[in-house]
Amino acid sequence: MTKIMIVGAYGAMAQLVTEKLLKETDNELILFLRQAERLAQYQDNPRVQLVDGDVLATDQLATAMAPADLVYSNLGGVDLAEQIASVIKAMQQTGKTRLVYISSLGAHHEVPGKYGEWNEQAIHDYLPGFRAAAKLVAASGLTYTEVRPAWLTNNDEVDYETTQVDEPFKGTEVSRKSVADFVFNVLTQPDTHRNESVGLNKPNTDGDKPSWM
């Protein structure tokens, strides 16, 4: 049995991963988030530990992280680099080595053409944080998987393809359910995608911007 810590556990993707892990594995979960009562549906689940905390409070994060075998970060925001720095420090303090974390397309200037130009403008405020976080993780000595999804949809489908960081990003969209499936697969097979940055997109969605824009 594996114990997985999910940081930023209230996020939509994190909740999909949580449900999939609880239904399809016997793993135990540490769900770390602000206002843990928002996930009160798990408070009586013997496989779930809810932790109400601030990711920037590194010592508090490390205390919660101590029993975990793997760490999955679903964090985001313009201060992502600061948050990831705290996760890295907590992992180093507790001797944890395996990190899976959500990033974004464009984190490595890998999105080509007009779509790349549009994406740079659309998430201009967030890209510096994604890029700084990626550099911090790569230099940390941790074994990591960086997940770079295309623009997210709530479509009820698992349909995706992957690209590596040295390949041009493909497609404009991908479902949250698809990203959760990929994350689930890495968390349950942690020897896969080691020290890789993986782009995720729905096949045949190439264009200058997502279809709904």
TrEMBL record:
Signal sequence range: none
Please list the residue ranges annotated as the NAD(P)-binding domain: 8-190
State what protein this is by name.
NAD-dependent epimerase dehydratase
Domain of life per record:
Bacteria
Q: What is the lineage of its organism?
A: Bacteria, Bacillati, Bacillota, Bacilli, Lactobacillales
Regions annotated as coiled coil: none
For the region Disordered, give the residue spans. Answer: 193-213
Pfam families recorded: NAD_binding_10
